[in-house]
């Protein structure tokens, strides 16, 4: 059996046409995990394509093509799926978007996998090999992350990434921040891998650096404490994601530092406490942001801070205020996005019932394009404000001030900041629609996808 696994990219990140180059990429885990789950007795020949670093071929030499889709890449995934099917391949779609909108994904595939793939995907492959594949494979209600095979990193284009050492210890998140798709897609809880299996996987990695891609590493604190305790003797340097609560618990924070953490992605989201309270993220204390960042910097941990514009409380003054606070906090690598109501979530349904969704081209659901009418400003003000915030924060003088003040991992910070500066400059000129069409997908295809989405969304 010839198996081709594809992760499509949104046009802004796509190989050659995209903005981010090698220096800012770590290898995604989805494809390598799916490859590892292929039952050995099928004797499958497996090829992986991450479209962020390698183009998708025009001709598919495969019996089965598996495609992973998030909302922003769904139209691209559908275009690839349609082409593969027209060439006689069987196509399976999976990932967050097919999980949230299964009926839509079924229009472009022979089968879909919803939820986690660990149990459903091997079953699907068995059924396919015996000629009795079903249309829908769902994850069990309580999926296990125990005893999973090691991701097939050997199948990746190694030189295309800053590191192929991406690992996860947990999935999901018990919080329910109003804009986040994770608890909606995977359930409001954290799923944990046995710690000894995570440690064993890390021990086997080449090189000292790794990225822990868990959406919220400290979701289960006793688990996080034990994980950090067992990571410390490995003497690795790692980067990951946590919430602003990370510095509150002294024991947990000390263990995180000793485990080799060198950088954290933290969702600050807003500089307004009332906004945070309204979006169920009241645990982010705006009055303590400065102290939190300082504590992280004091222990040598760089901060990638995420901020979102366009919440119902936000008015046009939000951009300038946020840019000022970001500069004051000395965040090493700030990141801005616009509030995005992902289809299949309650917030999408609410805005839809208020007639506030004006864009149903999912390729624009990339958190950088405004797709709904904000409450206290126009969509144009929101879009322009986002661009301005990026450009202001990534002026050379602003970059220099932040890096000098932080002094954490300066070389990584300089490279990442220059990458983001390039991204900020390109962002406002970048129109996903023109690129979708220029990447071998005809306008007709695109219009057809847009129509089918409107009908099912
Ligand atoms: S803490 Fe992070 S991962 Fe968890 S729901 Fe909030 S935004 Fe999502």
Description:
With 457 residues, the protein is α/β, with parallel strands linked by helices. It has two domains: 2-138, Rossmann fold (3-Layer(aba) Sandwich); 153-427, pyruvate-formate lyase- activating enzyme. It has 18 helices and 14 strands. The protein has a six-stranded parallel sheet, with helices on both faces. It has a six-stranded parallel sheet with strand order 7-10-11-12-13-14. Strands 8-9 form a two-stranded antiparallel ribbon. It is globular. Bound molecules: iron/sulfur cluster. The site of iron/sulfur cluster has 11 residues, from helix 6.
List keywords for this structure.
pyruvate-formate lyase- activating enzyme; Rossmann fold; 6-stranded parallel beta sheet; disordered C terminus; binds iron/sulfur cluster; globular; 18 helices; 2 domains; alpha/beta; 457 residues
Question: How is the topology of this model organized?
Answer:
Blueprint: E1 2-7, H1 30-36, E2 45-50, E3 64-68, H2 74-86, E4 90-94, H3 96-100, H4 102-106, E5 111-114, H5 120-129, E6 136-138, E7 166-167, E8 170-172, H6 182-186, E9 190-192, H7 195-203, E10 209-212, H8 221-231, E11 237-242, H9 250-258, E12 261-269, H10 273-278, H11 289-298, E13 302-309, H12 318-329, E14 333-338, H13 346-353, H14 379-393, H15 396-406, H16 410-427, H17 432-438, H18 443-456
Parallel strand pairs: 1-2, 1-3, 3-4, 4-5, 5-6, 7-10, 10-11, 11-12, 12-13, 13-14
Antiparallel strand pairs: 8-9
Helix pairs in contact: 7-8, 8-9, 12-14, 15-16
The structure holds iron/sulfur cluster.
